[in-house]
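Hi V.,

You were right to ask for the full record rather than a summary. Here it is.
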Amino acid sequence: MLDRDRALEWCRAALDASKADACEVTLGGGNDAWTRFAANEVHQSMASESYEISVRSLLGRRTGRASTTRLDADGIRAAVETSERAARLAPESADVLSLAGPQAYRPVPGAYDDATARLDAGARADAAAEFIDAARAKNLVAAGFVRTVCGRVGDYGERGAVAIVNSSGLEAFHAGTTFQVSATVMGKDGSGWVEGTGRSAGQVDVPALAGRAADKAAAAQSLQAIAPGSYTVLLEPAAVADLLAFLTPEFAATVVDEGRSCLSERFGTPLFAPSLRLWDDPYHALHQSTPFDAEGWPTDAVLLVEAGAARRMVYDRASAARHGVAPTGHGLRVPSPDGAAASHLVLEGGDGTAADLAAGVERGLLVTRLWYSRVVEARDLVVTGMTRDGTYWIEEGRVRHAVLNLRFNQSVLEVLRNVRALGRPEATNLAVAPPLVADGFRFTSATRF
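Predicted structure:
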């Protein structure tokens, strides 16, 4: 993995080439290694190391940006010159601020695990074999991946910031590790799915997840149809996180101010179950995140929802200046139409597992995860999507049988208002979320699978 000295050296090379009034340089990327398996065989192992320099030049109240993956002297200099040309052509903006000066950053304990960073293809294949063996033992078929990231690389190769340097003296560096597994185990009729993610491989119990995936798939055979309608649901953490992810832009001050948020003019209004406490917290032990935002500003842990209502917004530097408050360190790469995002969501919960919560459900559905979820009505954040990879009927506190998947049209706000039980939070790829029980979840149609 790229170390701090080398990362800052690249950034300073761009800074030295700048002729702008002010300059900000961001380095993003890292190592990304995958082992994929399908049809009960490991079929691909790959690893890549990629970085991107992004240069923002300021000329008065004009700003321009250019990026490059060429990190030699000529490539860096070309990106700097392109950003300066873009700034000269850009219109002036009242939101263009002088760059932040040096900052102090809160450490993120356990963010980097050397053993995880050094995991090789053989170790990843051993983890994949756990899922394959568990599937074969039940005459099922497994497919999925085992992944390690050192730095910041998104699911589709997006390069997040690991270092930021600017002409006002700010220098920031953070490169954590991530270990992630995802597996689908399939039978003739249905399938079961699990995921696990952590800052280190030691945080993910691969054998337990493999057994759980196989058990889910075995229980998902002989699917029975169920009529669409409103049901009590037990959503597992991945399904909860999928819904929470739609709240990521909703707490941004700029989005709220412009009336584009479902929370616009609703702060302080009862919208959620009184027991809910929703945070944006990059320092939570189960999160993979950084202690600074895309402007290099230190990120705060922010309590977003408490006592049934939205309480606080998140701010980049520009929106904070408009509101006369301190930034919270949630800024996106400038320029951005949204300004900030609550991208480290943590929903507090209780102590029980999903199985514990099922005991309190008289009649309802257990949902493993959601799929192809999309917003269809923004004001109340109504989302449509489908259940997938393990949907089961619960009766008298017990999971009775698997059911065919269902399509839903449901307000995320309504789900969080109708919560009546919360379990123990788990790390997912989208948020830290507990399993939860909510009443009145609307399913609009059935499927044939």
